[in-house]
Amino acid sequence: MKILIADDDPQLIRAMRITLAAHGYDVVSAADGAEAIAVAAQARPDVVLLDLGMPRLDGVEVIHALRGWTDAPIVVVSGRTGSADKVDALDAGADDYVTKPFQIDELLARLRALARRIGSGSADPVVVFGDVKVDLAVKSVTRGGEPVHLTPTEWRMLEFLARHPGALVTRQTLLKDMWGSDQIADTGYLRLYISQLRKKLEADPANPVHLLTEQGMGYRLVL
Fold it and tell me: For residues 165 and 45, what is the distance between their CA atoms, to the nearest angstrom?
């Protein structure tokens, strides 16, 4: 079973990685909220262990983002002991809440219980940003519930960004994915397609908040 540990405490991640690996779990990790979403989309963990107080995006925001496309169990592991924090996390879609400091035996018992609930397979994610929903399984895009027509190349670009939400995708990576080679000169093709996607998917295409350009490097889809 693959577990994602999302926590900004490197010592805790190191200790939990060693302990969980010793019990046969495959472990991936993330040090902040945005990275947690990106790693989850790429690694497809069976269970997410999530701290609430992380930089960039806090735990509740991460839960909302993950619940847009995955039903993998989410266990909050947090030093926050207030009932309001627990209610917020559970209402957002968390399955369980463990308060730090915790006994590793207790965490392992909860993981075993969650393992019994996990199905044998998982579908491609549905990625949601703004009022846009990208269904990677059926290759469809809707905005405000209405279907959006994309050209095959526009879809290819959006699909790659949606499979790596929050991550910087370089121009070379996109060129290789879309045309099969990173040796193709980018003579404005990528700018053209990202501009077309913004016109179709952004509320204000001139001031995008989701389909962003990283000057001189590439593009990023922000959920």
Answer: 15
Scan for tokens 């993950």, then name that residue: 66
Peptide bond into 55 cis (omega under 30): no
Span 2-115: which CATH code? 3.40.50.2300
- Any idea which residue has 């991936």 for tokens? 28
- Does the CA dihedral 170-172-178-184 come out positive or negative? positive
Q: Quick one: pLDDT at residue 122?
A: 45
Indicate the fold that domain 126-221 takes in CATH.
Arc Repressor Mutant, subunit A (1.10.10)
Residues 180-222: tens digit of each pLDDT? 765 566 668 899 999 999 999 999 999 999 999 988 778 989 8
Q: Which amino acid is at 93?
A: G
Angle formed by the axes of helices 189-201 and 171-179, nearest 10°: 90
pLDDT tens digits, one per residue of 96-127: 888 888 888 888 888 887 776 665 344 467 88
